[in-house]
Amino acid sequence: MATVTVRMPATTANLGSGFDALGAALAWHSFVTLSAPHEGIVVEVTGEGAEHVPHDERNIAVKAIKALIRRVGAERAKPLFSGFVLRLDNRFPLTRGLGSSAAARVGALVAANHLLGAPLTTEELLAIAARLEGHADNVAAALLGGVVVAVMTSQKVQWVKLLPPKKLHLALLIPDFELATEKARQVLPPQVPLQDAVFNVSRVALLVAALATGNFRQLREAMDDRLHQPYRQALMPWLPKVFEAAKQAGALGVHLSGAGPSVAAWCLEQKTASAVAQAMWQSLNAFGLSGSFRIVPLDKEGATVLRDG
Hints:
Layout: E1 2-13, E2 22-36, E3 40-47, H1 60-72, H2 78-81, E4 83-90, H3 100-115, H4 122-133, H5 137-144, E5 147-152, E6 157-162, E7 169-175, H6 181-186, H7 194-213, H8 219-222, H9 229-232, H10 239-248, E8 253-256, E9 263-267, H11 270-286, E10 291-297, E11 304-308
Helix pairs in contact: 1-3, 3-4, 3-5, 4-5, 10-11
């Protein structure tokens, strides 16, 4: 029975103004291990959320593998067709806006593709993952690493990867409650005023330019947003105070991580990131809420095959 293990980064999406278009991979990793062939499908889950994740064919990683099997065809996917053993070791929390679903889907796809001898290209894997996820920002960052601009078209995902310097660190505030992406999307309006759309277009252009050129002093203004964060504050009324605490403590820029409730603050040095994380945590506590924080650099590699045997 062949086995492959894939290391998957956590991700933070949107980056404020880049709603459904920008994502960044974080050096905080989960692991996906796939073994085949096997009689029937076995799913083993350990770590974060293990008691809540389906341990059968309802698991989103299993569904991703089945999507790949359909894509390559039964004959090419023969080692997986009769069944497989899928092990998910979740090291970062689920439903916190840190890309847990993207990691599971992309990790399963990369593992299955590798086990089959790589019949699909990176672009093809990304297209499958984006279709399953419903948007490309998290899955593109999870697969490719770095900071990724990703746009879904009817045929494929167009993407550009940026590699900001190692000195950038993200301070993550992780509240002790879950927020489903579906719920966070339900509060968004179907239409927005033209001036808000123009506001975000200008900010996301500035954001990409700042990350590409290293002009990080622009990040505070560039990460400002009017498309999703103001509406999601109804679910997280503490958000403005946490944002302000991060900025006062020296963050270059701060934004809701994905749909939330986690918050990501970008900092130039690890020492500053630690101070920013403490400030955000104290601000959250002032609302009577608990949480944790973590300091992480960017992951530049994305999905990485660690073991093949």
